[in-house]
Every structure is written in C-alpha cells, then in structure tokens.
Amino acid sequence: MRAIMCRRLLPGLWAAAVACGPLAERAGAQVNVQLPTFGVAIDAQGVLAVKTFEDPTGRLAAARREAAKARLPKNLQARSPLRKVSLVRLEAAVQAQLAAGKKLDEPTRCLAGLQRLQYVFFLPEAKDIVIAGPAEGFAADASGRMVGLGSGRPVIELEDLVAALRAYARGRPAEGFVGCTIDPAPEAMLRLQGFQRTVPHAVPEAQRAEVGRKIAEGMRNALGLAPIRVFGLPPESHLAQVLIEADYRMKLIGLGLEHPPVRFASYFDLLSGGNIRTSALQRWWFTPDYECVKVSADRLAMELVGEGVQLLTESKLIGPDGRLKSGAPGNRASDTFTEGFTRKYAELAQRVPVYAQLRNAVDLLVAAAFLRQQGYAERVGWKMAVFGDEAVMPVRTHTAPRQAPAAVNAAWRGSRFLAAAGGGVSIRPEEALTAEHLLSDKDGKVAKLRRQLGTTPSGDPWWWD
C-alpha cells in the first residue's frame, strides 16, 4: 500500500494523495464510553473490510471475562512474569488431543496465555527447546481476538507459532522475507491520471464541499480494488492476516480515517500546500528493528529486546506507464508521521491489540529463524511431525485476502483539496541474526536465566511458571 501524491492540476487549486485499503469508521472516545473494538472481515471473494464491534457500556467484555475465569484453571488465570513453554512437550500434547479425536483446548490454542515470546532456551540434556515470556489469563474480545484478562494484550496463538516454525523449518527454502503488500496496479494509476484531467480548473467556495465529495469518489472509482500479496506465509494463515490488518490499519491512521487512542499527528494532519511534492508517492512499511536479539556466549539462550517494530518511508515517482520508480525527493510530512508512529509504537501496542500481534509476529519469525540457524531441532531429535504437517495441524484456516477497495480521505487546506494514505510489511528475520546486529549477553543475564531453568519439570507438563 502506498500514498500517492497526484500532480497539481492548477497552481493554488489542489494537490492530492490517495491510497488503497478499506475505509474505516472514526473511533472517538467519549466520557464513560468504551472505545469500539476493531477487527477485519473478508468476504467469500477475498475482499477486505474493517469491522467495528461496539460495547459502549463494557458489559459484554465484563461478561466474557467472568466466563473465562469460570472456565480457565486457576493456575492459568494468574499473571506470570515468565511462563515457560516446552515446544517438544507442547507438540506431544497437541498430538495426544488430536489422536483422541478432540478439538484442541483453549490453553493449548492460546499457549497457556503467553503474551510475548521473550526468551528461547536450549536444553540439550533434557532434549528440549523452551520459549518463555509474560503471560496471564485470557478471553476473547468483541472481535474474537484472545486477549489478557487484565492487560487486554493479545496472547500468542498456537497456529501462529506453527506457521512461523514452518516458514523457517530445516530443509525448506526460506522466502528471503515475510510480509505483505497492497499496491494499486499500474492500470489503476493510469485510470487515476485520466480522472485528474476531468477535474475542473476552478472551484467556487460555495461548491467546494460537493466538488470535494465527487473528487474523492472519482479517485476511489479510478483506483478500484488493489491486489493483496503475501510473502513467506500461507495467505490463509492467521499470521498472514495479522500482517495485513496491521498494514492497512496503520494506513488508515495515516489517512486520518482511524483515530488511535495514542496521540500523534497523522500524515493527513501534516499535509499542507508547502510540503506537497507533485507526482510523488510515499511508501510506508513496517519492518523490525533488527538489533533485537541478545544471545548468550554459548548460543544456548537468546532474548528478544527493544520495541521490535519501526515504520519507514520512501518517496517514489509515478511513471507515464503507471509504474513506480526511485528518484522522488523526500517528504517531510511523511517522515514526521512515520517517526511519530515508531516513537509511539510501544504505547500503541499496549492499547491496540493488532500492533502487539505484529510485534509478536516479528518475535515468532526471528525465534524460528534462530532455531533453524542453531539447528536446535536436529540436535534434540525433534522432527516436528505434527507441527510440520498441514494435514495434521492446519494453519490454512482462514479465507485468503485477495483485494482491498480504495479509500480516500478528503479535506480542503485553504484553496487546496487533499486526500491521503500508504502501507506494507517486510520482515527479514535472518537479518537480526547477522554478526553486525546480534547483541552480546554482556552481563550474563540470559545465560543465568537458562541455568536457573535447569531442566523441565517432571510429569510431562508442557508449560509451567
């Protein structure tokens, strides 16, 4: 997804930026009113739309929490600063449930409430690989997303862990990067350029509102549906859908079509006549902060550190054939928006679950790449017979998103008419594991935690505190 800066049709009249993606309703807070929950919907044709779930009084959320407390074992409800999950024993537990003809239970599907993959520990003596991080009891929110009972932060789902492990399984070629794009096709760009030539050269003050609506509608019609592409993951997987939702909802924030509960300026707010470049496109995309991996000297433990995700931007030129090329000058409004988004990312992840899920996706993929690099599975004889088999443990469980309709936000700035958007996700997990990016365990904290872990507890539990 990209923010396209259309050429000025007449000096002093208007400049525009347009984008592809679904139009979201404005989410505003009122006194004693709970913010709506956002989610996604994909129809049978694979067309995306943003969906909102209202619970103004919070009663439905409270009822779901109480039901979860009654359903979950007591030891799963407690907040844990460091819950451990054995990957080998987890797979055995999954295999046992499936072999008995049972549907996987909630604790298994939600990894015992694990909310972040913070550590990976290799235990060669126990022939085990353990992941660990903070956890708490969980329940579904209004959109069906499983979130913590106290924090509201999403838990890591088993199928996301499995999808990440498969993406970097030994013997399978890595895709180079994992991510998604929603880009308008070149023919859509050409239609947009044709529509521009129909815009009147002058607009009287009294007609601006009506003309503005028609211009926005014309832009949406010209752009039509943009194809969605997913790289490195099955597009039908939940993990792929997390990337896509984070992508276009970031764009909607940039457009001013979704108002997050964390304050910073959107790209739309920052646009003005003085900072618009004509015929230029602003590309925005999420990427990890690759200095996120701290490894013990013996390579038996690793920690994922920092905020993990950043939003980047670059300018592109729109060629006469509708294709994009490098060489456009920078755009200060776009720089300021992406810098603000990155600076506030940790706060956003605390308040908007999909950004915590995106951070978790980065962590899962980096951890999976680390397991592959170190050969942990081979060293303990873990063959991933269940996790590696789609027929046994499916992750292609959702409708594949294929297209997104155009969305345009519009407003007058003096005598100019503006409309805006942008997006993308690009994750290259193995880049975080290069010598230039790896962080050393100088104080020995990560190695000490592994030693304290010792061995896995007796009785074959797949998780413990």
What's the total count of β strands? 22
Return Rg in Å: 24 Å
Q: Can you give the helix content as a percent range?
A: 25-40%
Arrangement of strands in the largest sheet: 16-15-12-1-2-17-11-10-20
How many individual helices? 14
Low-confidence stretches: 1-34, 273-279
Mean pLDDT metric = 83
Number of domains: 1
The main β sheet shows up as: 9 strands, antiparallel
Structural class: alpha+beta
Percentage beta strand: 15-25%
Question: What would you call the shape?
Answer: globular
The first-to-last residue Cα distance is 42 Å
What does it look like?
This protein is α+β, with helices and mostly antiparallel strands and 465 residues long. The chain has one domain (2-464). The chain is built from 14 helices and 22 strands. The chain has helices at residues 59-71, 74-77, 87-99, 106-109, 158-167, 186-196, 208-223, 238-255, 267-270, 332-343, 345-351, 353-374, 376-380, 445-453; strands at 2-6, 16-20, 37-42, 48-53, 80-86, 119-123, 128-135, 138-140, 146-148, 178-182, 225-231, 280-288, 293-295, 301-304, 309-318, 324-325, 403-407, 409-413, 416-420, 425-427, 439-440, 463-464. It has a nine-stranded antiparallel β-sheet with strand order 16-15-12-1-2-17-11-10-20. Strands 21-13-14-6-7-5-22 form a seven-stranded mixed β-sheet, with helices on both faces. Strands 3-4 form a two-stranded antiparallel ribbon. Strand 15 (309-318) and strand 16 form a beta hairpin. Helix 8 (238-255) crosses helix 12 (353-374). The longest helix is centred in the C-terminal third of the chain and has 22 residues, at 353-374. It is globular. The protein starts with a strand and ends with a strand. The model is unreliable at 1-34 and 273-279 (pLDDT under 50).
